[in-house]
Write a structure and sequence with these properties.
two-stranded antiparallel ribbon; elongated; two-stranded antiparallel sheet; single chain; 4 strands
């Protein structure tokens, strides 16, 4: 039997507590995989699944970089990004990845 009922906001369940516009003092309150002594038990399995799906897509499709019209961009406009020397991008252009299903699997 409940003798004293009071609404205590600190213990009330609030499903929107991590939503946008909430308290900014807890910027990193949500950790997707968990952290510390009790991380998510399925973290490694989920990461393996993500890698396996990516590998599957890489083997099933051919990929190429195209511009907005669907044509390959001119290689002379591709310049390295000074902040990341391992990445080249078309200068002042948007580009897309065109994928086509391979006729035979690897």
């Amino acid at each position: 039997m409940l003798l004293n009922y009071s609404v205590d906001c600190s213990i009330r369940f609030d499903p929107g507590r991590y939503g946008a516009g909430q308290d900014k003092s807890q910027l990193h309150a949500f950790l997707g995989w968990g952290a510390g002594r009790h991380p998510c038990l399925g973290k490694r399995f989920a990461q393996y699944e993500i890698k396996a799906i990516c590998a599957l897509f890489l083997t099933l499709y051919d990929y190429e970089v195209v511009d907005t019209t669907g044509k390959k961009p001119d290689p002379s406009v591709t310049v390295p990004d000074k902040n990341n020397i391992y990445q080249a991008r078309p200068k002042d252009q948007t580009f897309y990845i065109k994928y086509t299903k391979r006729s035979e699997h690897i």
